[in-house]
Amino acid sequence: MNMENRVYARLNQGIDSFIRVASVLRRKEFNVKEINMISEDSFINLDIVLEDEGYLVNKMVNQISKLVDVKEIRVL
Questions:
Q1: What are the b/e assignments for 2-28, b being 16+ CB within 10 Å?
Q2: CA separation for the pair 20, 24 (Å, rounded)
Q3: Which SS3 state, helix, strand or coil, does residue 63 take?
Q4: What Pfam families is this protein classified in (predicted)?
Q5: pLDDT in tens, the chain (76 residues)
Q6: Taking a C-beta distance cutoff of 8 angstroms, is the pair 53, 4 a contact?
Q7: H/E element, 57
Q8: Domains in the chain, start-ordered, CATH in brackets?
């Protein structure tokens, strides 16, 4: 049974920050169903929807949180 998990990430403003996150998601082969990006003041807010069995969400959060551009990340 596939399950959807939603993750919120707040990044520094700039397309480079988004590209770094997207590169990690692609390189680690996470099953991303949807990404929504909203630019706000000096930050980018990402809403990432993953299809997985649950345990991969924590792995993804750990990988993304290592990036210097990520100011906040949490599972919703």
A1: eeebebebbbbeeeebbebbbebbeee
A2: 6
A3: helix
A4: ACT_5
A5: 568 999 999 999 888 999 999 999 999 999 999 999 999 889 999 999 998 767 789 999 999 999 999 999 999 9
A6: no
A7: helix 55-65
A8: 3-75 (3.30.70.260)
For the entire predicted model, the pTM comes to 0.88
Which amino acid appears at position 34 of this protein?
E
Residues in the chain: 76
Which amino acid is located at 2 in the chain? Answer: N
Which tokens in the block code for residue 24?
């990690």
Q: Which amino acid is at 23?
A: S
The token duo for 25 is 């998601």
Residue with tokens 């990044």: 11
